[in-house]
Design goal:
The protein is an alpha/beta fold. The chain folds into 2 domains: about 20-40 and about 280-370, Aspartate Aminotransferase, domain 1; about 60-275, Type I PLP-dependent aspartate aminotransferase-like (Major domain) (Aspartate Aminotransferase, domain 2). Helix content is about 45%, strand content about 15%. The chain has helices at about 1-15, 45-55, 75-85, 100-110, 125-130, 145-155, 175-185, 210, 240-250, 250-255, 260-275, 280-295, 315-330, 360-370, and strands at about 30, 90-95, 115-120, 135-140, 160-165, 190-195, 220-225, 235-240, 310, 330, 335, 345-350. The strands form 3 sheets. The chain has a 7-stranded mixed beta sheet with strand order 2-8-7-6-5-3-4, with helices on both faces. A 3-stranded antiparallel beta sheet has the order 9-12-11.
Amino acid sequence: MLDTWFDKKLQERDTQQLLRSLINTNERIDFTSNDYLGLASSKVLFQIIADRMKQLGLHQNGASGSRLLSGNSEYTEQVETKLAAIFKGQAALIFNSGYTANLAILSSIPQRGDTIIYDELAHTCVKDGARLSLAKRFSFKHNDLHDLELKLQHAEGKIFVAVESIYSMDGDECPLTALVPLVEKYGASIILDEAHSTGAIGEQGSGLAVALELHDKIAIRVYTFGKAMGVHGACVVGSASLRQYLINFARPFIYTTALPPHSIASIDCAFEFLSTNPHLQQQLRDKVTLFVDNIHNLENRTSSSSAIQTVIFPGNREARHAASVLQRNGFDVRAILSPTVPHGLERLRICLHTFNSDQEITTLCKALSELAN
């Protein structure tokens, strides 16, 4: 009975060209992963992490419980102190993922009578967290500060504005320099997700807010380690009071088994590795420049200066076809379909990496130009 319903729903997705499936892409040239700096595949970093585990005498496979039970350690708290220093915050609290970090913040801090206002292109975890809150919630047009102000004028209670440094679908930046004073004008607090800027931007990978020297103006910041940092986990950075509040009230923190010791060591080593290899950020910028220079005449590309680049192929069928052509030519490029993006803005999402050769990038650009024409 239940399987019949499953099959019906899956058939509906298939008819709409929306059916997802798991595929192995190891043999294709990677233009889809978030491993911007190549740390996830770095054999050098892999060995450094293994050596750190031996050095610390960490032989435990799992955390064995939540942080409030058996899953805490002195080493975890030491790493949190290091992270707070890197991100120039008073305190940091590690979470199992950026998704659970955002879920924790938005579900536990805004209360009934408060207001959450989020960018319409914010990640699903921001929207899911807002849904779990008893606060009122509204979206504002993407990066549209005039529309944001209209929403701020009608907000009640404590006001929270949730935005991202770099947006995952278009690769464009949040206008933080203008957003911060606007939000301050209305006494609101910013929740900033630095998922796609962590590691890729700022000294020691400290993200966009620190690079712009706006970190002290932002109440809550989320940093994710599964993208440019090449490992796993996330942390929330802010005041010591924020950290203690989340420990006491954030259900995704309280009731989740903590990250294993290997993950904590991986986070620690990844940031140390980046601090001794700052050239990786410049290499990434050079790859982005090469791509943009070779594709700038394409009318259907969106404007981005980040590692995330997009080319619009309106229609799910058209976007899937374009991706299939590139995949047959050895490029791992994926189609992003509606309703994940608005109808008519279906696209190819292309992620650039330090390990993509110049020839691979220029060949991809040539193939994209042929498809677009």
